[in-house]
Structures are given as structure tokens and as C-alpha cells.
Design a protein that fits this description.
The complex is a heterodimer. By secondary structure, chain A is of the alpha+beta class. Chain A folds into 2 domains: 2-77, Ubiquitin-like (UB roll) (Roll); 81-161, DNA polymerase, domain 1, CATH 1.10.150. Chain A has 6 helices and 5 strands. The N and C termini of chain A lie far apart (41 Å). Chain B is α+β, with helices and mostly antiparallel strands. Chain B folds into 3 domains: 31-140 and 202-255 and 260-291, Aldehyde oxidase/xanthine dehydrogenase, a/b hammerhead (Aldehyde Oxidoreductase, domain 3), CATH 3.90.1170.50; 297-470 and 636-787, Aldehyde oxidase/xanthine dehydrogenase, molybdopterin binding domain (Aldehyde Oxidoreductase, domain 4, 2-Layer Sandwich); 486-632, Aldehyde Oxidoreductase, domain 4, CATH 3.30.365.10. In chain B, strands 3-5-1-12-9-10-11 form a 7-stranded mixed beta sheet, with helices on both faces. In chain B, α15 runs parallel beside α16 (552-578) and α18 crosses α19. Classes of the chains: A alpha+beta, B alpha+beta. Chains A and B meet through α2, α3, α4, α5 and α6 of A and α1 and α18 of B.
């Protein structure tokens, strides 16, 4: 079937088997390999993207759900704000060493930006709770939590300054 | 113009830009023209005779390109997966080493054992065809636990391995230990289980293979921590290919923790298959498939006894361990519970006599091999737990008992009774620092506050040491290593002065691209941004043993440092020519070659220019170019260590253990990048906390099925399980590595399980609890509380 949606700001139309998962569509058909697949039980969150601004696990979403919707992936995040191609949340992850092997990072950053958009000044407990659906095996989460709090502040400062 | 950013600075990481923007290049991201897709058919039985495989239906399925089985492997005369270590028992009898075929032959020995490889045009077609493969199994009784496996009537995995014992190994002076026990005023005893773990790097394993018939050349992209070793083992021993016709690439790899430091059968099968079908073949493991095939870790059953004199001085330690090897010997398998375990039983203490017996045992489970810490967390857990048991039994404060037995700073280098000689350390300094940082003196106040809220609060200590920087080749060879364990680095200074480093270690989260660039920037005085680190490709990097055992900075960094020194030596010769001075008069500092006592200077950029455009150059005595290579073989292990203090709160109503505070003061030697070191400590600690509180690989005893086979059933720590940890370093310098570094990748995982469990036991000690096995899950704690003789109340 043919579906049309906005992908990282661009109108996109693809021919797709309706049984295709969004993560597979992105990775295999559209060559957007920044969205990662780390599990098969919707636990790890490496595949999180924004569907109409809401963070969703793209490994459990079928492609037809995209028809008429707006999809943002990690590849499109930096282009939407910030300098040097980095969104303030991406910049905060770099600044606070919130990533090591990088595999969980795209999903982690996408979850974090949605969390910070909904709650500009999250507490540490709120951030930890908000990241419960994203697993990182490298960092012990500490610097991720610090980065998300800093990134939320930076997102807020950036939008307040506009 | 960029800046020199040297040792001790904390620049942001070079690797982050690509990872943050989704532009990493992991194996599963790679596509090749004409690529096919492979699926492994794995045994659903723990133990069975493989009577036959009928390929017909699978071969006839749409899109199927090939179906390969163990019979095809045998027909092609291929070898089995090699074990890199050969250990022996006390009499020198070598371990039993049954073959580990890359696809099962005759029998399957664990759930997940590979039976066939199905290749099709699409992944869906391969999966559908795999389901059509008809495999005739004659199911046999199976055994999954070590205690059961050594019983006389236990099912036997291999005809020529009686009682499933691969090796009955020992270390230490048994007679001296027995004599010390006879004189002891007190003997503390402890039986414990070191729980079986599954590493779970977030990137599942994957591989792509391609064969170029025009050049008779193979390429394998694989999620590996040591591509050169994979090339060597696979080419020389399994597929019997000429090594120069095989390229192995491990690009960005999403975490390893040991799980990716073995040569896996999948790598050999897919490389072999790509030549048979003359198409690129791709395989990506599902997470569930990873649970059934990634090598597992730990899985010990241990009895330990500590002999003490009347003052609490340790006289001797005796340890008996049964270690699970799983169904076959993996690459490092038998080395982990023996050579990487028993030599660490001295801990940071002056225990004069130690004896350790380890029975290495086959069971119908996934092969067990190194997982972050590998042997050393198990040893630390034994030592640090039994010290607490002894302290409680003798009525001596736990910290005081540790102090009475600790190796004083002045006593280094310190020869232990179990092979290793610690070169440097200051365990007392780490302990003192941690006691302050953890605010131990006010623990009573916090405990009382918890009690008012109906909670039990406990404090746990772990003062530990590890051996890392694997390894001095000669020493490892005596212990049974079948290969060398050096590292290599090439420093290529380009004509305009930028630098490419080619190094044999592998970066999969450790930040090598940053740390190693700092070393080069520091030594050569070139801007940090002008240094790139290349790794993970056997066609680009000369050779290397890869990354494991906290060895990258210790061994690889040393090779890099030596290669940079050689660049400086050559640079001095070039400078002497250009500055018309004698080589002895050339002074080098921070990228500048000067004639001592003058203002005549050449920068390293000018030296590089002269080396590559040698118009004015001492060609009679010196070759053009500025590229140097060094191989470095360490003279000893390094011995990081430290003190970890965990503080937990237990809810007696639910049995939930909450880690409320965690403090670590670690001695990792020279710190190159403190930001990265902190990150390594955080991650390591949390993996150890995972072992202590959450993680457990569970097999069903009767069926041999893995019960904890997904992230739904095997609990890895989440962000909301953890407090903000306090980590700090208290460094003594390693005396034998060029920069004084000791390594930091595993310390967290080694120190933390004992600290956490000691805290849990402390919280429950008023109920008569003396030991809690890992993981201390709510279920386990709740049951303990129900069985405790005292009423379940905080006060």
C-alpha cells in the first residue's frame, strides 16, 4: 500500500507492505539507520521516534499508522533546532557524557526531548521515571539523567529566547 | 588552530557527533549489493541426538538460496571452534576439550545450539523456510546446574568426559593452608552462589559476509571486540583460509562487556556460506536469540573458609568452587573461573596462605565465558563476603577487621601467595577516602530515620583489587594461554602534521577515539582535533588483540605511547639535520624540536613536511616519511582497586531493596580523561548492582529451557533503580606501564556486588540473616523475612 507522511520535515510517500514495522521501514527502506532495534519485546527503547510529537517505540508500530502523520527521527532532530546541527538535548548529552557506545542514544535522546517538551523543569526522579522504558547498558544512567535535566533547561532557554 | 589537549584534560568525545545524530555505522546498518539474509535454526532441546535433518521442504520454500547443516560443514572438512586457553589439573593432565562444531554434529548440547543456517532473498523468507526445516531429535535427559552435573548418575554431555568435569584445577599451597587452619582461633565458613548473568550489550550480535571470487577474498563485518583475533582463529583454525585473503571489520559496536570478545560459530558459518552462495549474507540476532547464544557469565557454586587468629588476623583462605562452562568450551571459557579467579583471592589483604580448587564443569546450557570483570568479581565476592561473615562472628567491626589485614601502602610491591605480585596500591587510602565521601559517621542517623519509616537500612563495604591489562604474554603462556596478549599501534604523521593512529584495540563505548587522541596530542604537541584513531578493520590496522580485560589503555595505550616516542626519536634526527646541530643537542618538548640553549626551533609540522618532501633531508642515514609502529607486551598485570560503600534500604512489607547511596573511591592509576573514567565507573558499578539486585539467568532444571530468555524476564537495571553515585579516584601510579595507567573498565563491576550484598545482609542482620544470595530480589528477601524468627518490624 501507499502511505504519505511528513518525515523529518519533508513530505514522503512510500510503497510499503502493511505488515512492515516502522523501525524496518525507516532502516531498510528509507536508509535512516539512526533508529536502532535492541530487543524484540518493546523493552529497550532504542527505536523511539516521535509520531505527531509523541514518543513511540517504532518497533511495535505498523507502517500504515504513519499515513497522514508527522514523524521525527534522530536524523531530523538536530535540523530542527540548535547550532552545529545538534538539538540542545543532543548537545547536553555530549556535554555531560551521556553516551558511551551510542546504540541506545538515539532512542534515549528522542524520549528525553519529548519528556522535556512536556515538562520543562523535570526533577531527577521525574527524569528517571521518564526514562524507564529506555535501557542503557553502558552509562549507569547517571550522566544521562544529568544530561536530560540540562537539556530540558537548554530547550526551555532556547525557546524562551526566540 | 586547534589546541593541544593532553593527559588529565576532559575534552568532549570525538565519537559523540555521529552517535548523537544517528550516523553511527553498526553492522546491522550495513547493506551490500545483492545481499541475502540468513537465519540460524537452533536446538529447542537442551540435550538430544540429532538423528537427521530433512532439508527438502525448506529448500523448496520461496526465495530460499541455501540450507546448510553440520553435515555440510563436515563434508567441507572444516574445523571446530577453538578454545584459546588450555588449563591442566594439579598432575598436569590437560583439560578435556571436546570439539565445538560451528553447526551441531551428532548431538545438540544446549537450547540454542546451532543446527542449520537458512539463507533466502529476504529475511521473512529465511524465517519462514527455517520453520519448514524438519529436524529429527531424540531427546536425552539434560543437566543445567553444576551441583547436579557432577553427580555420578548425571546425564553426560560427552562420552569421554566422565562426570562432566572438564578440569579439576587447583592453585595454592594446600598443605600450608591446612596447617594454618589447624592453628586457627576462628574459622568463618560461607557457602554462596555467584549467579549466572547475561551481558546484554544493547546492540544484538550481527554479521555480514561477502566473498569476491575475482580476488578469492572474504570480508566479514562482525560485532566483535577483537577483529584480528576473529580473523586469525577463523582463518587458521576453523575455515582453513589464508589469512591475507580474509578481512574482518568490526565497525561501530554497540557495547560488548565481554560478550563480543569470542569467536562465535555464526561468524565462521556466515563467512563460509557467503562463498558457497556467492552472495553477501546478513544475519542479525534478535534479542531473544542473543539470550540463547551470547556467551553467559559467572555461574559458580562456592564454599569458602577463612582461618583467623584470636586478633582477627587472616591466617589462610580455602575455596572450593564448581564453575559452569555450559555445553562447550568458548574462546576464553576455562581461563575465567581459574586463572582470572583464584589469583585474586588474596584481595587487598596479607592472607599468607591460600588454596583454591575449581572444578570446571560441562552442563546443557549456553557456553559460559568472560563477562565484564570475568573471574575477578567472583573472587572479590568470595573474599569481601567472608570477611564480613568473620567480622560478625568474631564481634569485630567490619572496617576494623579489614584494616587489621590490609596490605599497607609501604609494603608494595606485594607478592601474594597466589601467583600475582601487586606493583602498587593504597587500599587504606581508598578506604579512608570512601568513609568520608559516604558520610559513614552519620549512617546511624540515617538508619534511625529509615527505622522511623518502617524500613531497614544497611551499609556494605567492599575493599577490593583486580588484575587487569591482560596480559604479560609469557606469564599468560605459563597459565595456558595459546596466544600472545600484547598490543600494537602505528602513529602516522601526515605531511602537514595531522596524525592517524592505527591501533589493535577496539572502541565500543570506552571513548578510545578521545583518550588515545589526548595521548598523541600530549606527546606530539599536535592539536587534539588533528588526531584520528582508526580501529576495527584488519585491512587498515596491522594487528591487535582487541579490547577486553581493561587492557586497551594499559596495553594499547602503552603501545601508542611507545610509537609516539619513536616518532620523536626520528623527529630529533630530522631536526638535527635541518637545524645543523648534533642530534644530542636537540631538545624536544610539546611538538617543538629546538637546539638546546638557542632559539632555533622546528615544529613537528615542519619536521613532518621535511620527512615527506625530503629535499633537504639526511637521506644517507634516514628513510623519508614519519610513521612509527610499536608492539607492547606488558611486564605484569596492573592492579586497580579501591573501596566501594553501598547503602540500601529494605521495605519489609514488600522485600524491595532500594540502593539509596553508593560511593566508590578507586585507584585506577593515571587518569587520562576524568570524564570518561567517571563514566566507566558509573557503568561498571551499575552492572555490578544489576548482578547483586536484579539479574539472574535461570534454567528450568527438568527441561533445560532458559526461563529468563528476554528483557521481560531478565531484569537489567533501569534509570529509576538507581541513586546518584559518588565516584572519585585515589590514584597510585602503576610502576610498569609507560604512563602509570591501570585501567578502569571493570573496576566498578568487580567492587560493587559485594558492597551491595554486604549492605543487604547488614540491613537484615538484626533478624539473624548472615548471607543473601544474588540477586537480592524482592521475592528472595520477602521469603527470608517470612522465615526469620524475629517479628518483621523495624524496631
Amino acid at each position: 500500500m501507499q502511505i504519505s507522511f511528513t518525515l523529518n520535515g519533508r513530505a514522503t510517500t512510500v510503497d510499503v507492505d502493511p505488515a512492515t514495522l516502522v523501525s524496518d521501514l525507516l532502516r531498510e527502506q528509507l536508509n535512516l539507520t539512526g533508529t536502532h532495534v535492541g530487543c524484540d519485546t518493546s523493552q529497550c527503547g532504542a527505536c523511539v521516534v516521535h509520531l505527531d510529537g509523541v514518543p513511540v517505540k517504532s518497533c511495535t508500530l505498523l507502517a500504515p499508522a504513519l499515513d497522514g502523520a508527522t514523524l521525527l527521527t534522530i536524523e531530523g532532530l538536530g535540523a530542527t533546532a540548535g547550532s552545529n546541527g545538534l538539538h540542545p538535548m543532543q548537545e547536553a548529552f555530549r556535554e555531560h557524557h551521556g553516551l558511551q557506545c551510542g546504540f541506545c542514544t538515539p532512542g534515549m535522546v528522542m524520549t528525553a526531548t519529548a519528556l522535556a517538551a512536556a515538562n520543562p523543569t523535570p526533577t531527577e526522579a521525574e527524569v528517571r521515571h521518564g526514562l524507564e522504558g529506555n535501557i542503557c547498558r553502558c552509562t549507569g544512567y547517571q550522566n544521562i539523567v544529568i544530561a536530560v535535566m540540562a537539556g530540558a533547561a537548554a530547550m526551555h532557554a532556547t525557546s524562551a529566547g526566540e | 588552530m586547534g589546541q593541544v589537549i593532553g593527559i588529565g584534560a576532559a575534552p568532549k568525545r570525538k565519537e559523540d557527533q555521529r552517535f548523537l545524530t544517528g550516523r553511527g555505522n553498526y553492522v546491522s546498518d550495513i547493506k551490500r549489493p545483492g545481499m541475502t539474509f540468513g537465519v540460524f535454526v537452533r536446538s529447542p532441546h537442551a540435550h538430544a541426538v540429532l538423528r537427521g535433518i530433512d532439508k527438502a521442504a525448506a529448500l523448496a520454500a520461496p526465495g530460499v538460496v541455501a540450507v546448510l547443516t553440520g553435515e555440510d560443514v563436515a563434508a567441507d572438512g572444516l574445523g571446530s571452534l577453538p578454545c584459546g586457553w588450555g588449563i591442566s589439573d594439579a598432575k598436569g593432565v590437560p583439560m578435556k576439550e571436546p570439539p565445538f562444531p560451528m553447526l551441531a554434529q551428532g548431538k545438540v548440547r544446549f537450547v540454542g545450539d546451532m543446527v542449520a543456517f537458512v539463507i533466502a532473498e529476504t529475511l521473512e523468507q529465511a524465517k519462514s523456510a527455517a520453520e519448514l526445516l524438519s529436524v529429527d531429535y531424540e531427546v536425552l535427559p539434560s543437566v543445567v546446574g553444576v551441583l547436579d552435573a557432577v553427580r555420578p548418575d548425571a546425564p553426560q554431555l560427552f562420552d569421554d568426559v566422565p562426570n562432566n568435569v572438564c578440569c579439576d584445577w587447583e592453585l595454592g599451597d594446600k598443605a600450608a593452608v591446612e596447617s594454618a587452619f589447624r592453628k586457627a582461633a576462628h574459622v568463618a565458613k560461607l557457602s554462596l552462589v555467584n549467579n549466572r548473568l547475561i551481558g546484554n550489550p544493547m546492540e544484538p550480535r550481527a554479521a555480514i559476509a561477502e566473498y569476491d571470487p575475482g580476488k578469492s577474498h572474504h570480508t566479514l563485518w562482525t560485532t566483535s571486540q577483537f577483529p584480528h583475533v576473529v580473523r586469525f582463529l577463523m582463518s587458521a583454525l576453523v575455515l582453513k583460509l589464508p589469512e591475507h585473503k580474509v578481512r574482518v571489520v568490526a565497525p561501530d559496536v554497540g557495547g560488548g562487556f565481554g560478550v563480543k570478545q569470542f569467536h562465535y560459530g555464526e561468524e565462521a558459518v556466515i563467512t563460509w556460506a557467503a562463498k558457497r552462495v556467492l552472495r553477501p549474507v546478513k544475519w542479525v540476532a534478535d534479542r531473544s536469540e542473543g539470550y540463547l547464544s551470547d556467551r553467559h557469565g559467572r555461574d559458580h557454586v562456592t564454599e569458602a573458609e577463612l582461618a583467623l587468629d584470636e586478633n582477627g588476623k587472616f591466617l589462610a583462605l580455602r575455596v572450593k568452587t564448581l564453575a559452569n562452562m555450559g555445553g562447550y568450551l568458548s574462546t576464553f571459557g576455562p581461563n575465567i573461573p581459574t586463572n582470572l579467579y583464584a589469583p585474586l583471592l588474596g584481595g587487598v589483604y596479607t592472607t599468607p596462605a591460600i588454596y583454591c580448587n575449581v572444578k570446571v564443569v560441562f552442563t546443557n546450557t549456553v557456553p559460559v565465558d568472560a563477562y565484564r570483570g570475568a573471574g575477578r568479581p567472583e573472587a572479590t565476592f568470595v573474599v569481601e563476603r567472608i570477611v564480613d561473615v568473620a567480622a560478625a562472628e568474631m564481634g569485630i567491626d567490619r572496617v576494623e577487621l579489614r584494616r587489621r589485614n590490609m596490605i599497607p601502602k609501604e609494603a608494595y610491591p606485594y607478592q601474594t601467595p597466589v601467583l600475582v605480585q601487586y606493583d602498587s596500591g593504597d587500599p587504606m587510602g581508598c578506604l579512608d577516602g570512601a568513609l568520608v565521601a559516604a558520610d559513614v559517621k552519620n549512617f546511624g542517623v540515617r538508619k534511625a530515620e529509615s527505622a522511623r519509616n518502617g524500613k531497614f537500612r544497611g551499609l556494605g563495604f567492599s575493599t577490593y583489587v583486580e588484575a587487569c591489562g591482560l596480559a604479560p604474554s609469557r606469564f599468560a603462556g605459563r597459565l595456558g594461554a595459546r596466544g600472545g596478549l600484547y598490543e600494537s599501534a602505528t602513529v602516522r604523521v601526515h605531511p602537514a602534521g595531522q596524525v592517524t593512529v592505527l591501533i589493535g584495540t577496539h572502541n565500543h563505548g570506552q571513548g578510545h577515539e578521545t583518550t588515545f587522541a589526548q595521548i598523541v596530542s600530549d606527546k606530539l604537541g599536535v592539536p587534539f582535533e588533528n588526531v584520528d584513531i582508526v580501529f576495527g578493520d584488519t585491512d587498515r590496522v596491522q594487528f591487535g588483540m582487541g579490547t577486553y580485560g581493561s587492557r586497551s589503555l594499559v596495553v594499547g595505550g602503552a603501545a601508542l605511547s611507545k610509537a609516539a616516542d619513536k616518532v620523536i626519536v626520528k623527529g630529533k634526527k630530522i631536526a638535527a639535520h635541518l637545524l645543523e646541530a648534533s642530534e644530542q643537542d636537540i631538545h624536544y618538548e610539546s611538538g617543538k624540536f629546538s637546539v638546546a640553549g638557542t632559539d632555533r626551533v622546528k615544529t613537528i609540522e615542519e619536521i613532518a613536511g621535511a620527512a615527506y618532501v625530503p629535499h633537504n633531508y639526511p637521506l644517507e642515514i634516514l628513510e623519508p616519511g614519519l610513521e612509527e609502529q610499536a608492539y607492547y607486551d606488558p611486564v605484569n598485570f596492573t592492579y586497580p582497586g579501591g573501596c566501594h560503600i553501598a547503602e540500601v534500604e529494605i521495605d519489609p512489607e514488600t522485600g524491595i531493596v532500594t540502593l539509596v547511596n553508593y560511593t566508590a573511591v578507586d585507584d585506577v592509576g593515571t587518569v587520562i580523561n576524568p570524564m570518561i573514567v567517571e563514566g566507566q565507573l558509573h557503568g561498571g558499578i551499575v552492572q555490578g548492582v544489576g548482578q547483586a539486585l536484579y539479574e539472574n539467568a535461570v534454567y528450568d532444571d527438568s527441561s533445560g529451557q532458559l526461563v529468563s530468555g528476554s528483557l521481560m524476564d531478565y531484569c537489567v537495571p533501569r534509570a529509576d533503580h538507581l541513586p546518584m553515585m559518588k565516584v572519585a579516584t585515589h590514584s597510585t601510579l602503576c610502576t610498569h606501564t609507560p604512563m602509570g595507567v591501570k585501567g578502569c573498565g571493570e573496576v566498578g563491576t568487580i567492587g560493587s556486588p559485594a558492597a551491595v550484598i554486604n549492605a543487604v545482609v547488614d540491613a537484615l542482620s538484626h533478624l539473624g540473616v548472615t548471607h543473601v544470595d544474588m540477586p537480592a530480589t524482592p521475592n528472595r528477601i520477602w521469603r527470608l523475612l517470612q522465615n526469620a524468627s524475629l517479628p518483621v518490624a523495624a524496631e
